Amino acid sequence: MKYELVIFDLDGTLLDTLDDLTKAVNHALRLQGFPLRTREEVRLLIGNGIASTMRRAIPEGSDEAAFTRALSDFRGYYLAHVNDYTRPYGGIPRLLDDMASAGIKAAVNSNKVDAATQALCQAHLPGRFAFILGEQPDIPKKPAPDGAIRIMRALDVAPGRTLYVGDGETDIQTAHNAGIDCAWVGWGYRRVSELQGAEPPRIFTSVEALRGFIFA
CA–CA distance from 158 to each of 64, 147, 150 (Å)? Predict the structure, then answer.
């Protein structure tokens, strides 16, 4: 097999977190008296961390104080309700188990707050990752390659033996910036037409198709 390590994005790749994220966004907006967002709107706001999500969710022209309050309200609510409706996508647990049996390491690299990233991985996919990395103050967010590079160095795996799997343009850019192969998955929060100029080198519309590529 070509790969020793597969680094996964979390939201929209391993876990469907959209309902919990939508509720947290609207909780924060409601407290500020701002218009609420639909689930479909929130889907398009996700990908670059909670600060980016909330900045885009509040009305254009809102002042910095309103943004700061909304971000704090979102963070507090989400950390308390991070796992109300979140679930793994079908086939993901089995894929990770099969990778482990084959000696392929799995890791997570997410722009989600690290506490939430760790909690969700433990709740839904315990014991399946060699390294889990959420948002850290000393690591630039994706699409910066720093997180992926830290994971590869920690696990002593070369870029040429690593695959990055994600559902957004941020993931495609992260893989490119880290010099590693990329697999884009179509079951998450972006459609091909929404990738804002990021061309996915490999497209997989099902977990089974991704499995076939990893184990080829």
Answer: 42, 14, 11
